[in-house]
Amino acid sequence: MKKQKKSHSEINYWQSNTDMMTGLVLILVLIILLLILYLMQIPEDTLPDADAGDGYTVDNELGDTTDDHADYAGGGYEDDDDRDGGGGGGDEEYEEEEDIQSGGGGGGGGDDYGGDYEYPYPPTSGDEWGKAAVYATVVDEETGRAIRQAGITFELYEEQGGDEGGSLRFLNTYYPEKQEYRNYETTEEGVFYLPEKIDEGNYYFKQISEVEGYDLAEAVHFEVDDVYDWPDPYVVSIAISPAKNIIPIELTDADTQEPIADGTFKITAAEDILTADGTVRYAQGDTADTVELDEDGQGQSQELYLGDYIVSQDTIPQYYASIESTAARTVDAKDGGTPDAVKFTCEKTEIALSLSDEIYTGQKLEGAEFVLSCDKYPELTQSAETDKNGELIFTDLEKNRTYELKQVSAPDDYKFDDTAVEITVSEDGRIDGEAKVSFELTNYIPRINIGAKDMILGKPASDMSLSLYSGDGQLIRTWTTGGTEVTFENLSEGEYYILLDGDEDKKYEFSFSEDEAMQEFSVSVWTLQDIIIIAAGCGAVILGISAAIVIVRKKVRKGNKS
Fold first, then answer.
1. pLDDT value, residue 316
2. Are the C-beta atoms of 353 and 408 separated by less than 8 Å?
3. For position 203, what pLDDT does the model report?
4. Cα distance between residue 86 and residue 478, in whole Å
5. What is the pairing mode between strands 287-292 and 462-470?
């Protein structure tokens, strides 16, 4: 049986509205709950990588926290190669992006690093609203490349009222217990995080440990002007400058010790000159600088990177010979003083003469004139005379020139050879490979030694009266021999004769020539010694003949008897 609706039952007009409102409230409550859950949830991309090494980690399911880095040893995080900036990943140089302001001036914004990273500290406590997480990287000031070196230590100062001295900031970590940090060290990647977020304001890092080959960065200023969180920290690029120093050079004359105001020196790398950012500043053999000397014979290189160099002559001063030696020099860091100069001495190109008597070599000749000329370059002609020591030096010789040296006069009655000698000065200011060449030259006076000697033995004869006459009968000198010859010089060329004991029948003629430095002429005479020798010889012969006759006779007699 079908039940029929009573026609007189009441209709509830509010039921539908109540149901709609209830639904709206439930939806609103659901939205609020979802919002609360969203606000409480930690996004997965902000969680540290638990497998990346020591660090603070969070269990997503249980919400438990564990401290894998209770003791901070100056960093301890790892920076992925994918992350842009921050001197960490790969071998790429850090490039400043528009959205990440880095370096001494700091600056806000921030481009998401992309990829994973690990923050090395436990979570901080307290209200962090309006604070910034700071990430620092150490780079070379010139190249911008990361200096991947652990243990570079810095202090953080907060500027106060424009006072650059500022106040030293101590930062803390609070888990599992509070720990204070007074300085901050880089990891092997040359980077570090500050252990807690810092307030907006002006700060600077001060370097307190040295990096080999670099100067200390006394103050790297930056300004935090916005809020930064760990996934997108404020990046400070700490640029440090490679240490450099100069090489001073001095050049003096080897003889006078006076400065030489000319010439240049070349400085080359004795090895590959490297800096800690991995940059080869100079390859071995590269020219690092060329130094030009001033009027005081001094010069200095530009500031060079630390390392070993070789200093060698590049251009040779005028009138000087090249310096064949080189000097090794190590460029060390500055110590407040000027490095010792590399000192060189240079020899002038010289032609030295020594003139003496051809026969009596110890007798030096003064006043002989020599001329040094250069074909097609009359302005280079020089002339000079030998001094009292018979010496003469020509200097101020141009390179790549051929000179002729010729004697044009001699002292007194000396004769000389006027043949010119060719001398070539090479492009390095040397003559036959030497800076200085010397010539031992002689002049002569025509001389003749006249004496008497015995007829047989040819020994000097004494007590003989000799007279020298010219060809026309003029007596020049009469003397008695004493066992030595008498030397005559400055005789005119021509015919002469000697009279023995003034006897015209004992006349000995000879010719004298000026082309010879020394001639010899001897009168052969019979002496008592010669007579004794002849007599002894004759006696020996007679005895010999007599003995032979006696022997022959004896043999004949023996033959007759038989």
1. 96
2. no
3. 94
4. 114
5. unpaired
Q: pLDDT tens digits, residue range 165-213?
A: 689 999 999 888 999 999 999 999 999 999 999 999 999 999 999 999 9
At residue 77, the pLDDT reads: 36
Cα R_g (the chain), whole angstroms = 55
The answer to whether residues 300 and 348 touch, using CB atoms and an 8 Å cutoff, is no
Structure tokens at 14: 């509010």
Span 127-147, pLDDT tens digits: 556 799 999 999 999 999 999
Question: Which residue's structure tokens are 């001063």?
Answer: 317
Q: What is the DSSP string of 169-229?
A: PPEEE-SSS-EEES-EE--TTSEEE-SS-EESEEEEEEE-S--TTB-----EEEEE-S-BB
pLDDT at 111: 35
Q: Can you tell me the distance from the alpha carbon of 268 to that of 327, in angstroms, rounded to the nearest whole number? A: 11
Sign of CA dihedral 15, 18, 20, 23: negative
The pTM score is 0.66
Looking at residue 160, its pLDDT comes to 80
The answer to whether the beta carbons of residues 234 and 224 sit under 8 Å apart is yes
∠ at Cα 394 (392, 399), nearest 5°?
A: 160
Query: How far does the chain reach from its first CA to its final CA, in angstroms?
Result: 215
User: Following DSSP, what letter does each residue of 324-349 receive, concatenated?
Assistant: ---EEEEE----SSPPPPEEEEEPBP
- Rounded to an integer, the average pLDDT of 434-455 is 91
Other beta carbons within 10 angstroms of residue 386's beta carbon come to 24
The Cα 183–Cα 214 span in angstroms is 20
CB 356 within 8 A of CB 442: yes
Give the whole-angstrom CA distance, residue 159 versus residue 31: 47
Give yes or no for a contact between 131 and 198, defined as CB atoms under 8 angstroms apart: yes
